[in-house]
Amino acid sequence: MKTLVKNFIGGKWVEARSRRYFESRNPATGELVGRCVDSGREEIDQAVKAAARAFESWRRVPAPRRGEILFRVAERLVRHKDALARTLTQEMGKVLTEAKGDVQEAIDMAAYMAGEGRRLFGHVVPSELPNKSAQCIREPVGVVGLITPWNFPVAIPAWKSFPALILGNTVVLKPSPETPVTAASFIKIIEECGMPPGVVNLVLGSSAQLGEALVSHPEVALISFTGSTATGGKVAVAAATHHKRVALEMGGKNAILVMEDADLDLAVDGIIWSAFGTTGQRCTACSRLIVHTDVKNQLMKKLLARLAKLRIGNGLKPGIEMGPIINRAQLEKVHGYVGVGQQEGARLVAGGKILSEGEFKKGWFYAPTLFDCVTPAMRIAKEEIFGPVLGVLEVKDLDQAIAINNEVMQGLSTSVYTRDLNRAQRAIADIRTGIVYVNAGTIGSEVHLPFGGMRRTGNGHREAGQAALETFSEWKAVYIDYSGRLQRAQIDTD
C-alpha cells in the first residue's frame, strides 16, 4: 500500500475530515502512484484561514529575508531534482528528460524571484509642488488561490507561488487531481526550507467543488488559474461576482510557419519537438503547420520519415521520446478529434489510432498523428486538441501564413522558419501572439521573460519575468509634503 498523501494546512500534514480518498495512477502502466486525501470545501476554508492568519506576519518579513528562503528552495530542488522528476514522470507520463526540465523551471523561477527580494523596484518621481516628494511602492494583495493543471505539475505551481511569496502574499494551492503526489512532493521541499506555517498551503481533492470553493471564498484576494479556456471563463465570471482579481492562462492553437527559404531539417526538428513533445499536452504545443507550397512536399517527406522513427512508451525508459496521454477521457477526446478531421475532409497521412497492444495495453497511448489538406475553417484547425495531432495548411506567401495564424481565437505562441531577416522582422511585427519564435519551435519559454497570450488565451496578465510581479501586487502611491503649509495639487494659486 502506497503512503497516504495528505493536505498541508497551517504548517501541518493533515487528512480530510471526510476520510474519503482517491488514487493517482501512472498513465503509462496503470500502477498506483499514490493514495490521496479527497478534500472538500471545509479543507479549502481551513487552508484559506491559515493563509489569512499568516499573511500579516509574512508581509512584514523583509523581502530580502523572504528571498533567502526561496534561494534555499532552489538549492533543495537541485538536490531533489532527479527524484522529483521521476515521481512526475510516473504520475503525469512525460518522458524523464522533460520531467527534469519541468523541475528545472521551478529551480530557475525560485532563484529568479529570490533575487527580486533585493529589488522589487517602485518609482520615485518629481512632484509638481515644491518641498514635496512623490513615489510609489508595491504591496502584496493578501491570500492568493492557485489552481494549476497536470501537464506541468512542478513548473506552473512554481511560476505562480514564487512571485506571490516574494511579494509577501500567502498561498493556497489547489493542484490537478491527476498529479497530487507530485504537488505534495513539491510543497514538502518548500516546507523543509523554513517557510513559516500557513504561508504555503496545499489542498488535494478530486472534485470540481474545491476550485469553486477557492474562487468564492471571501478571504481570497486573487485567483491565478491555468487550464482550459472554457473553465477559465467560468472562473472569471465567478471571481468577478465575488469582486476578486483573477489572472487566467488558458488554451492555445499554436502554429509553425515554414517559408520557402527555411532550413527544412531545422524546421523538422522544431516541428517534432513542438507537436509531439509532452505528447502534445502543452498549451504552447504546435497543432498547425502552415507551410509554403514550394516546400510542402519536401517538408512532408522529411516529417513522415521522422515520425516513423519516433519512440513511444513509458517515459521512465531510456530513449523514449513520447509518453502516454494523461487519462482515458483525454485519449478519447483526442481520438474523437481525429474522427472529426476525417469527416471534415482532411487527409490522414500518419497515426490516427489508439495504441493498445503489447507494451501499450496498460496505458493511454496514441500514435503521433499528421493530417494533410487541412483548411482554416476546419475544427482541427481552430480548436485546441491537447494531444499529438498536427494539421498541415498550405499557403502561397508569408502574408497568407500570418493571416491564417492570426484568425484563431487563441494567441499564445507562433514560430516562423525563414532565413530572410526582413521576413522575420515583418512576422514579429504582424503575428498576434504573446510569444514569437524565429527558427525555433513553439515551446521553451524562459523564466525571465513574460509568458502568456492574446485574445482567449488569457485575460491580459502574464506569468514569469517582471510581469508576474504585476499580477501579485498592488501599487501604493506615497506623497510626503515637507513644506510646512497646505499645498493643493491641481489647484491654481494665481
Roughly what is the average pLDDT, rounded to an integer?
A: 97
Separate helix tally: 14
What is the architecture of the largest domain at the second tier of CATH?
3-Layer(aba) Sandwich
Quick one: biggest sheet?
7 strands, mixed
CA distance, first residue to last residue:
83 Å
Structural class: alpha/beta
CATH superfamily of the largest domain: Aldehyde Dehydrogenase, Chain A, domain 1
How much strand?
15-25%
Low-confidence stretches: none
Helix content: 25-40%
Alpha-carbon Rg, integer = 24 Å
Strand order of the largest sheet: 15-18-19-14-13-21-22
Number of domains: 2
The coarse silhouette is globular
Number of strands: 24
The third-level CATH topology of the largest domain is Aldehyde Dehydrogenase, Chain A, domain 1
Any idea of the CATH class of the largest domain? Alpha Beta
Overview of the structural elements:
With about 500 residues, the protein is of the alpha/beta class. The protein folds into 2 domains: about 5-250 and about 460-480, Aldehyde Dehydrogenase, Chain A, domain 1, CATH 3.40.605.10; about 255-440, Aldehyde Dehydrogenase, Chain A, domain 2 (3-Layer(aba) Sandwich), CATH 3.40.309.10. The chain is built from 14 helices and 24 strands. It has helices spanning about 40-60, 65-80, 80-90, 95-115, 155-165, 180-190, 210-215, 230-240, 265-275, 295-310, 330-345, 400-405, 420-430, 465-470; strands spanning about 5, 5-10, 10-15, 20-25, 30-35, 125, 130-140, 145, 170-175, 200, 220-225, 245-250, 255-260, 285-290, 345-350, 355, 365, 370, 390-395, 410, 415, 435-440, 455, 475-480. The chain has a 7-stranded mixed sheet with strand order 15-18-19-14-13-21-22, sandwiched between helices. β4 and β5 (about 30-35) form a beta hairpin. The protein starts with a strand and ends in a 13-residue tail after the last strand.
